[in-house]
Amino acid sequence: MMFSTGGNAAFVIASLAVGAVGSYLVTYPWRRSVSRSWFLGGLVSVLAYGTALYFVFTPYKEWNYLAFDGLGRFVAIIALPLGAVVSVYSMRYMRESDGAGRYYGLLLLMSIGVMGVVSARDTIGLYLFFELMSVSSYSLVSFRKDQWAPVEAGLKYVMLNATGSSLALLGISLAYLYRDSTLLGSVGWVLRTQGAHFLSPGALALAFTVAGMGVKSAMVPFHTWLPDAYASAPAGVSAMLSGIVTEMGFVAMLRLVLGEFSQGYEVFGYVLVFMALVTMTVGNLGALGQRDIKKMLGYSSIAQMGYMMAGMGLGLGLGVSDGIRGSLFHIMTHSAMKAGAFLAAGLLIDNIGSRSIDDMRGAGQKYPLIGSVLAISALSLAGIPGFAGFMSKLWIYRAGLESGQRLGWLVSTVAIGNSVLSLGYYLPLLFVLFRRTEDSREREVALTTEGQLPPAGTVLASTRTPWELLPVLLLGVAVMVLGSYPVPVLDALESAAATLAFLGGL
Amino acid sequence: MLVSDQALLVLALVPGFLAAFLCMFLKRSPGVARWVTLVALGISAACLGILVVKAQSGTISIVYPWIPIWNITFGLKVDAFSGFVGATVALIGFIDLIYSFGYVGPEEAKSSFFGWMALFVAAMIGVVMATDLIQFYFLWELMLIPSTALIVHWGTGTNPEATGFKYFIITHVGAVMILISFLWMMIIAGTTDLGLLSERLETVAPGTLKAMASLLAAGFGVKMAIVPFHVWLPDAHSEAPLPVSVMLSAVMMDMGIYGMLRFLFTIFPSEVLASLSVPIMVFGVISQWYGGIEALGQTQMKRVAAYSTISQMGYVLFGIGTMEFSGISGAIFHILNHGLAKALLFMTIGCVIHMTGAHDLDETGGLAKKMPASALFGIVAAFALAGAPPLGAFQSEWRIFAGGFEAGRLALTVIAVLCSVLTAYYVLRLIIKVFFGPWIHDKEVREAPFSMLGAMAILGLLSLVIGVFPGPFSNMIESAARVLGL
């Protein structure tokens, strides 16, 4: 396949599969000792991710149905380390729930789905892996099944995403009807040969695919499941969902549409641009009103999905390859910063016992490491230079201006405006976290002298261990490094961007 | 020679960042942290002092590859202009830190205060040494984070968060305008190197260039708090802790001046600039008068000084708008002179606040009896700001106005000159109300501690030296203006 610099997709998936079975089996004898089972399961899971990552860097090997191209390899470089980080984090974060085997098994199955979607060579394989990913993510969202909120959120998630999947399948079948082939990009083929006018087969196939995969990638009219799902899922799962799984809807959409012709995707590009403008604005406006930190981050994920679509839309619609580069890089930077934000927020929520931002007064000073990572991630999400988010957004802004067309300028202006808008909720969060609190000191005194429990939201002494702090710190460092010296990952990025630019006919 | 010129460049930039980094680990010993910061800024200031002398005979620069695959470099460059501004920043930053020794105790301020201060100063030094557009933008925004942290966390107002929010958002919007212009230039020129831009942009239509230049002027105007964009300044400058107010008012504003001069004059051809001349002068005059009139109506001491900054930036903008050699060189000179005078004024106010606890003009009076040294420095600051002859600011103000006459804008210049009367009036009103008149304090008041007075003495003396022996300084600013191609 094109532009591959290595990797063995089949072995990557195989090692994840072995890990999935292994983590389930290894925890089974220890199911009565909850903390030991989380430790062992996590260990096996990290080993599986590590082995898988090793096979990403082995020489290129093509199997019948599975192979990496530049894009696949790029996604693997994002997804596998993220999975390992989440596994380490969950070892201790999840220690009070049982079901370690189930958790790690599902996590690895979800990762298999992710890897399968980017390495599958035909539409049916892609769809099957996509469903594997989706089904595991439904179960992970409602992992804490003894509470009502996760179950409700999971239900909503299943309903909407199953609808999305069927729509996408309809698009794939329609393409099969006309193309008589399951090659990737057949939707784009139909679009090209059957025309894109109203209710033509091409337009219908595109509409079904975009809408179907749009549900999974939280494109705006279909985004309603996301804030609830992210808020109710365990922090590690939220990080994984927003870091890579949601993006896979978008990547799968690209896989289904782009490919066979290497040209003529302007309509798809314009659709993406239009959806992107709506998505980022609605996401940010939604986040502005949130007082629940996880819901706020969820809405922010919707907005960030908008940035990815905007970059890709500019690339395909207006023919600016910088847009594709920015869009793909944003997948990577977003996964580092949003995962960092979710994991840090998870620890913070655990420590203070509340998800409400109003209860987090001064928490950043009490927990400087967690607070700093949250601050770094928030500034990065808002596109402040020096942090990862700026580096990718820069290319998206640039692509719009580079097109030299009114639409491009509009997209860039809206994207920049949205970044400023997002400061409207990130800055107050940071100010709350690092507020100088006279009353928190008083509360502490009250606690020590009277021996009573403090009121809700009071910051308690830290009970954290390196097992949880290490992944959070790693992600914080990753955000800083990607934002100030991204050179190490740029080869992979450029090869992924070149792959898509070739497929998109640039 | 002990260290090479290139090593000096690195040594001028790095200590601030290093000190900020170290302060993260000195949480338990703020006393050590503040000495680390002071030494770091001292090294920076000394290096820039040497560099500014060396730069008179030629540009010193060093370029590192940063992101080679995207053609982005990280360069440090000192020429006569950036050396002058950088040395001013480092010098006032260093003196301000000495002042803060007396103003805030180490326990009260905490290590992070000094760390943020070091980062703030280092970012500003980086801004003036930057050679690449992306690098410039990085450092430009890096100024924002420490200053916001300082305003929000140590702020003295009733709602420091609202102040910090307003400050961050508005100056960030200004930065975004700069970013759009940068991206536009990068795309057309195909380079991010500041030195290559002007020749690569030669063939671009004047209309496009004019739009780019206007965006840049507006973006830098936000940082300079030029009137329609000034709303962030009064609150931020008056509610920040005093040493931070000094940095914001006396130093950070210079970054806007630096950016405007550097980018407008090195990139754009003179026809484009000529078309912007009158609008810039008009905005300058509006800021001058608006700031002056507002300052007259304020009841809080720090707010008077804050509005006075808006007014003084109006002077500078007027000087830039003349597009004449004397106007520009006056604007450059005013970076130093306004910095010294405004720092001195804020520090005087700081002495009063620190020793009496009063923030309002009405709560003070007759302090000269008990605080004679502070009163003396206050008078020096007032005369300097008013542009009275034996002091430094006179040297820059006459150049600015001479530039206005040279440009042939008689009416505008007369209006601008008349504002000096207003300036003298509001600043003397402040000093007279605070230090003279009847004694109205009910408690014992002592003179400010030595570190505060010492810092002020350096500033006052410098201002006097510049006023009395302007020769070497005017050579410096003239070569700075020549760097800009005038």
From TrEMBL, chain A:
<keyword id="KW-1003">Cell membrane</keyword>
<feature type="transmembrane region" description="Helical">
    <location>
        <begin position="296"/>
        <end position="316"/>
    </location>
</feature>
<dbReference type="GO" id="GO:0005886">
    <property type="term" value="C:plasma membrane"/>
</dbReference>
<dbReference type="Pfam" id="PF00361">
    <property type="entry name" value="Proton_antipo_M"/>
</dbReference>
<feature type="transmembrane region" description="Helical">
    <location>
        <begin position="38"/>
        <end position="58"/>
    </location>
</feature>
<feature type="transmembrane region" description="Helical">
    <location>
        <begin position="469"/>
        <end position="487"/>
    </location>
</feature>
<feature type="transmembrane region" description="Helical">
    <location>
        <begin position="6"/>
        <end position="26"/>
    </location>
</feature>
<keyword id="KW-0812">Transmembrane</keyword>
<protein>
    <submittedName>
        <fullName>NADH-quinone oxidoreductase subunit N</fullName>
    </submittedName>
</protein>
<dbReference type="InterPro" id="IPR050586">
    <property type="entry name" value="CPA3_Na-H_Antiporter_D"/>
</dbReference>
<keyword id="KW-1133">Transmembrane helix</keyword>
<feature type="transmembrane region" description="Helical">
    <location>
        <begin position="101"/>
        <end position="118"/>
    </location>
</feature>
<feature type="transmembrane region" description="Helical">
    <location>
        <begin position="328"/>
        <end position="349"/>
    </location>
</feature>
<feature type="transmembrane region" description="Helical">
    <location>
        <begin position="70"/>
        <end position="89"/>
    </location>
</feature>
<feature type="transmembrane region" description="Helical">
    <location>
        <begin position="155"/>
        <end position="178"/>
    </location>
</feature>
<feature type="transmembrane region" description="Helical">
    <location>
        <begin position="236"/>
        <end position="258"/>
    </location>
</feature>
<feature type="transmembrane region" description="Helical">
    <location>
        <begin position="270"/>
        <end position="289"/>
    </location>
</feature>
<feature type="transmembrane region" description="Helical">
    <location>
        <begin position="408"/>
        <end position="434"/>
    </location>
</feature>
<feature type="transmembrane region" description="Helical">
    <location>
        <begin position="369"/>
        <end position="388"/>
    </location>
</feature>
<feature type="transmembrane region" description="Helical">
    <location>
        <begin position="198"/>
        <end position="215"/>
    </location>
</feature>
<keyword id="KW-0472">Membrane</keyword>
<feature type="domain" description="NADH:quinone oxidoreductase/Mrp antiporter transmembrane">
    <location>
        <begin position="120"/>
        <end position="415"/>
    </location>
</feature>
<comment type="similarity">
    <text>Belongs to the CPA3 antiporters (TC 2.A.63) subunit D family.</text>
</comment>
<dbReference type="InterPro" id="IPR001750">
    <property type="entry name" value="ND/Mrp_TM"/>
</dbReference>
<feature type="transmembrane region" description="Helical">
    <location>
        <begin position="124"/>
        <end position="143"/>
    </location>
</feature>
